[in-house]
Amino acid sequence: MNEVIESGPFAGFEVVHRYTRAQAIDDGVLVDVTTQAKGCGFRIPVAMTSALFNDCWKWAEAVAQGDEEPSGERFVNWVLRFACETIRASKQTGTDRLPLTLSYFAGYPVQAFVHIGPGDTREPVATLMYPGEE
Hints:
134 residues
């Protein structure tokens, strides 16, 4: 028997299929960056969409100069630090997502957001993504 939704507008309906966060990570749709995120101030599991993660590497390649070329990993860390600081500085309540303006990292206008919500076992998790990748 499948899971039945207990509350909300779909209460009583049966869940036919659920695509879990773990499946999204296994499929490469999300990239688990929890280890890096802990070094940037996060205390919960963190993932980035593959599009945003791959863009961090592209941005690093675009600004690479000489022996001191920034790596994609460094750009991922910078974006994670920025997201963590955005969360800390936010005074917003009643929202599960905060906007991130990543133009500084990309060199051109880029909007993303960090979503804080329940993971597969309802634990708090963070996901960094572009609008429309929900």
